[in-house]
Amino acid sequence: MNLDVRGYRGVVRDLTGLLDEMKGFPCTVQLMDARAVAGREHAIHGAIHALKAFERGQNISSDMGIEICLRVAGMRQISRTIELLGIKEGEMEICAVLVDCGDEVIKFLDSIFERDDGVLEPDEEYLRRIYDLGGEAETVGVGEALLERTTMLTVA
Known about the structure:
The chain is α+β, with helices and mostly antiparallel strands. Helices cover 52% and strands 18% of the residues. It comes from Methanothermobacter thermautotrophicus.
C-alpha cells in the first residue's frame, strides 16, 4: 500500500467535473478542505483507520474516499463530515490523500493546483471551533484530540 498526503492551493472551478475526472483514476484520490485537517499526521491516521476498517469489514461508507473523510473527522455522519471536510467551488486550501496512486494522479493535481504543503499546518483555533473541541484539547492538544476521536470511532 502506498499512501501520500499532499497540500495544494487553487481554485476549484467545476467541482462536478473535477470529481468525475478523479473517479477515472484506478486508485483512491480524496481531496479535503485542508483547514479542517490538523496536519499530515491527522490525514495519514484517518486514512490508515479507513483502510483497516475496510479490511475488517467495519467501514461506515462503501466509498474509500468518504471513509477517509469520516475517519479524519472522527464521526459517522456523512453529511456533517462533507460539510466540514468537503471541497467546494472557489478558492481552496486542499489536503489530498492518495492511496495506491501513480505519477499520473500527481501530474494531474500539479497541473490544476499549486503544490503547497504549508496549507497542512493546523489552525488550532479554527479546528477547536469546527470540531467543538473542549477540555480534551486543553488536556492533550488539538491534534492529539482529533487523533483520539479517529481512534475512538474504530472502537465505538
